[in-house]
Design brief:
Shape: globular
Number of strands: 7
Order of helices and strands: HEHEHHHHHHEHEHEHEE
Strand content: 15-25%
Number of domains: 2
Catalytic activity: a 2'-deoxyadenosine in DNA + S-adenosyl-L-methionine = an N(6)-methyl-2'-deoxyadenosine in DNA + S-adenosyl-L-homocysteine + H(+)
Family: Belongs to the N(4)/N(6)-methyltransferase family.
InterPro entries: Ade_MeTrfase_dom_2 (IPR023095), DNA_methylase_N6_adenine_CS (IPR002052), M_m6A_EcoRV (IPR012263), MeTrfase_D12 (IPR012327), SAM-dependent_MTases_sf (IPR029063)
Number of helices: 11
CATH superfamily of the largest domain: Vaccinia Virus protein VP39
Structural class: alpha/beta
Protein name: Site-specific DNA-methyltransferase (adenine-specific)
CATH architecture of the largest domain: 3-Layer(aba) Sandwich
Keywords: Methyltransferase, S-adenosyl-L-methionine, Transferase
């Protein structure tokens, strides 16, 4: 079910990453299951910790999924492109790279160049934040890191080897399509963009489409459907009234945990935020 691969971890920062919740998530996974599904893969903290041999991963962010595929298929050229960015890194250079989706250069890039651009920007920008405007243009400002690790060569090679050797299907699209073939005994972990904890923290811009209350409701319906199929389903989200209301049928298997949220740009807006892990088992 799993393979031993030491020091495997996410290859990039990603908003909503689950490194701090890994212990809780691992403790709440089923002991045995067939296939692993993660429809909102993001940085893949749990996925890389578990390293399943048979899995389906998906994200609506096509640029992120392209990067997973490039790491699997063209890691050496990706590393060389990242070294170019590392050797030229500066505030001015960053904004020049960022503007590629505004001046037509992005469309002319090959897949490896696009993936290197994304990984570079996430490594040096403010809080490693992926954010786009209504036109789908990357708009996160440059960060203030003194020595950002832009090229983690060994990690990229390890991730590439894992993705090549395992039966991991990499998809980009709607979460419901990613779980279309889930069967009884499979395990599905949902880590969607979280419901906001207040009106001022409505951060859903992982893609220009966002993920609002209607999507949260559609996800709940999918959770129930997978439950009826006999799959093991686990979901993490904010511990807010709307989420407890949506999943009230699973109140007996809902666990409230604390985790440090680092999305807010103001230090006073960060800190311990209650989150929930909801299961059907």
């Amino acid at each position: 079910m799993t393979m031993v691969l030491s020091d495997l971890k996410p290859f990039t920062k990603w908003t909503g990453g689950k490194r701090q919740l890994l212990g809780e998530l691992r403790n709440n996974m089923p002991e045995n299951y067939n296939k692993y599904y993660e429809p909102f893969i993001g940085g893949g903290a749990l996925f890389f910790d578990v390293t399943p041999k048979d899995a389906v991963i998906n994200d609506f962010n096509s640029e992120l999924i392209l990067t997973y595929k490039v790491i699997r298929d063209d890691v050496q050229n990706l590393i060389e492109q990242l070294k170019i960015h590392a050797n030229n890194n500066s505030k001015e250079y960053y904004y020049g790279v960022r503007s590629a989706d505004r001046d037509g250069r992005y469309e002319k890039m090959n897949d490896t160049e696009k993936a290197a651009r994304l990984l570079y920007m996430l490594r040096v920008n403010f809080n490693g934040l992926y954010r786009v405007n209504s036109k789908g243009q990357f708009n996160t400002p440059y960060g203030s890191y003194k020595h950002p690790k832009i090229v983690d060569e060994m990690l990229l090679i390890k991730v590439s080897e894992y993705l090549k050797k395992s039966n991991v299907r990499i998809m980009s699209g709607d979460f419901k399509k990613a779980v279309a073939d889930v069967s009884a005994g499979d395990f599905v972990y949902f880590d969607p963009p979280y419901a906001p904890v207040s009106d001022t923290s409505n951060f859903t811009a992982y893609t220009s489409e966002g993920f609002g209350i209607e999507e949260q409701g559609r996800l709940r319906d999918t959770f129930v459907e997978l439950d009826k199929r006999g799959a093991y389903v686990m979901l993490s989200n904010s511990s807010v009234p709307i989420i407890h209301e949506l999943y009230h049928d699973y109140a007996d298997t809902t666990i409230i945990v604390g985790a440090t949220r680092m999305i807010n740009s103001k230090a006073t807006g960060r800190g311990k935020v209650n989150e929930v892990i909801i299961k059907n088992y």
